[in-house]
Amino acid sequence: MTVITTIEDLRVLAQKRVPRMFYDYADSGSWTESTYRANSDDFQKIKLRQRVAVNMENRTTATTMVGQAVKMPVCIAPVGLTGMQSADGEIKAAKAAERFGIPFTLSTMSICSIEDIAQHTTAPFWFQLYMMRDRESMARMIERARKAKCSALVLTLDLQVIGQRHKDLKNGLTAPPKPTIANIINLMTKPRWCLGMAGTRRHSFGNLVGHVKAVTNMKSLASWTNEQFDPTLSWEDVAWVKAQWGGKLILKGIMDVEDAKLAVASGADAIVVSNHGGRQLDGAPSSIEALPAIVAAVGDQIEVWMDGGIRSGQDVLKAWALGARGTMIGRAMVYGLGAMGEEGVLKALEIIHKELDITMAFCGHTNIQNVDQSILLPGTFPKAA
After folding, report:
1. Which of 46, 83, 120, 227 has the highest CB neighbour number within 10 Å of its CB?
2. Which pTM does this prediction carry?
């Protein structure tokens, strides 16, 4: 039996157990994938200062994100098609997050619905919204999130048009997926996954099918979504969402100081420095490289978080040291889910937390609230422009 000690161990196991088209969907970027790689590679360039002969007892990584208590400054990012990594995947991930003590964010493009998550969890979760042309459907979705007692809304701003992801095109990842000979042969090598899917009724986009006019199955959904991502998205639309929602609003996809200032002006409660996991604009800087300048510009006015490339607790600590008051993990969660279901997600969170806790101690701190740039070796981390 494989001993799981790192997120990489979970990734390797997930690659073995999840059909290629769905594994590649989660573990890939757009075009050359240079930004996708930079997201994790740039963390490795940042070096830590080890301190000794300090009292390392009674450590805590606890903090809050938009006023919600969290065991560590991490939440689960919205990831589309999570329910195709493992049967009922969003439910499993949400339950693991609740067990651990961090928030879970449900994607608009999830397999399990808002109502599914509310039914299977007791902790408040967050809902992620894409800006669609169909405002009536969006208003209904926001109302459904309110009824499910979601405690925050995450509005993704960087998917007005969809980046070209070559692996998805080559794998025939469409809605519904193309049953090519290669895909069928690959599915035959994943009996555990197939058995799980045979045992659930959740195989389509639960937030959309049956909830949006004229969307009654996967085929009609495909034509609807192709027309719906709104390239005209503006800050006036953000104001409309804020008025419709009325609760905590998090804006995801900020990579530029000017956009960060506009986000503050919009009245958002937090922003996420994010390049969509390297799945949109290839050639953009990594999230960790973009973070310091945005923190310097608006960090005293709004909670600044980041996502992209986090594969360890050390990455979380480095992001915190550079001013992020929260982080989102997507792929690390997906690897755990694909590898071992709910227990795999919990394992991923435990791995990240242990690395965060021990690394903080080695850097001479017992409370994450006291950690700042001084734990980083000068000259190894990105500076604010």
Report:
1. 83
2. 0.96
Expressed as residue numbers, the domain containing 198 is: 7-371
Structure tokens that stand for 102 in this block: 């961090």
CA-CA distance, 117 to 74, in Å (whole number)? 19
Helices and strands in the chain: count of H runs, count of E runs: 15, 10
User: pLDDT, tens digit, for every residue of 253-312?
Assistant: 999 999 999 999 999 999 999 999 999 999 999 999 999 999 999 999 999 999 999 999
| Residue 17 labelled as part of a binding site | no
100 found inside a domain:
yes
> For residue 113, what are its two tokens?
């619905």
Judged by DSSP in three states, 300 sits in coil
Q: Given CA atoms 246, 250, 252, 258 in this order, what sign does their dihedral have?
A: positive
- Rounded distance between C-alpha atoms, residue 34 and residue 11, angstroms: 20
Measured between alpha carbons, how far is 196 from 208 in angstroms, rounded to an integer?
22
Q: Does 382 map to a domain?
A: no
202 is in an annotated binding site: no
The enclosing domain of 236 has a CATH number of 3.20.20.70
H-type alpha helices, 70-155: 89-100, 114-120, 135-147
Residue 76's H or E segment, with its range, is strand 74-76
Q: CA angle 130-136-141, nearest 5°?
A: 50
Q: Is 209 annotated as a binding residue?
A: no
More confident call, 177 vs 154? 154
Catalytic residue among 120, 166, 276, 365: 276
> Which run of H or E residues covers position 193?
helix 191-198
Query: Would you call 211 a catalytic residue per the annotation?
Result: no
- Is 95 one of the annotated binding-site residues? no
Angle between helices 331-362 and 313-321 (to 10 degrees): 70
CA-to-CA distance for 41 and 308, rounded, in angstroms? Answer: 11
Angle at 75 between CA 104 and CA 248, to 5 degrees: 75
Does the annotation list 211 as a binding residue? no
Q: What is the pLDDT of residues 185-201, one digit of tens each?
A: 999 999 999 999 999 99
